[in-house]
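Lab notebook, bench 4. The sequencing result for the construct came back, and we need a structural model before the next group meeting so we can plan mutations. Quick request posted to the team channel:

Model the 3D structure of this chain.
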Amino acid sequence: MSASERRLAVLFHESEILGAGLAVVRVLPDLRRRGWEASGWFPGPGPLLEQAAGMLVARGQEEKPIAFSGRGWRRPPGPVRRAARTPAYLRAARAWLRQVEPDLVHANSLLMLPEASVARTLGLPVVVQVHELPAAGPKRDATVRWAAAVGDVLVGVSDAVSAMLREHAGLTPVLTVRNGVPPAEPAATPADSFVVGTVGYVSRTKGTDIFLSAAELARAERPGLRFEHLGQQRLWGDDDFDDTIEQRAAAPPLRESLRLLGRAPVGSALARWSVFVLASRSEGFPLSTLEAMAAGLPVIATAVGGVPEQLRHLDTGILVAPEDPAEIAAWIVRLHDDATLRARLGDAARAHVLGSFPLAAQADGLDRAYDLAVRRAWARRRRRVRAAGARSRGVRLSG
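Done. Here's the predicted structure in token form:
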């Protein structure tokens, strides 16, 4: 097939504007310049679909009943109705894939393995891109083996993710393709305010509780500090955790110094902030840190997953141990007091991100993964044809 005829179907696991989906939407124009015309499948309507609409040849959507945890299956309408709706959902995904006739399917999360399996049954080349780093255990191992069975190529967004995939990928190739970010104007922080910000949906994984604890400790040292949290609340059905976060934000000592912004534009928030904090317990390769660095903000981030691949301690940012709000608070206070260090880290972070993580490099990596997947799928088809011909002749093939 010629480059101008390559049709790509992206299976998005989210309709909200979160890091994994946004990372792929942003690279679609660069992929188009490399000959890939994209269509997108979404688990229902949402802002990500709206943002991507102008870059997609075709769009499909269907409310997804499938969940990947006990808590998820118990969410309304409940496990029985979710299970009952699953066959119709998968039939809808299958019909959509037949309609758009892609040359390749990109499953943008381990959460899209059911849909990727449908694509595999249609004989389509499949790339499974993994943005997440699930907790170690039998469930993760089985999921990665499933991904390796379905995907012609697995793509990890960091060396940390790729290493996890290779443990159970067998003969399925694993490539590392790091997310990129577009160029950004440096943030112009007002001289009369000092705001510490973070981006991420409210969750245990993102360490929202750790961020709040660090804010309490830092504010005890510097009462003038202000804090903002940008990201959706009550997204994953962990009501007890969400309740606790809201109660802490509304009570002293944070009531007067912390704002939970919910869904809001990231760019305008970065322009207000003096320091960015990522307190996550687990990360594959977070987009939020790259965006903050591209805006010239000094970043304090937990050294988990792929984060150390983004920044170097006291060179292009600050790395701290996970589960340690006191260390985060100490660095917030130090950066508040040391404008020279703050400026040096912000300038170095911006130069590093713009030089090392452009969208063009991400597009090149995905293009290589797509081409490899297509070649492997063609080889797979040839082996099947060869085996079928041998069986019809009563010949046993070796190898």
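The chain has a mean pLDDT of 93.
Will bring this to the meeting.
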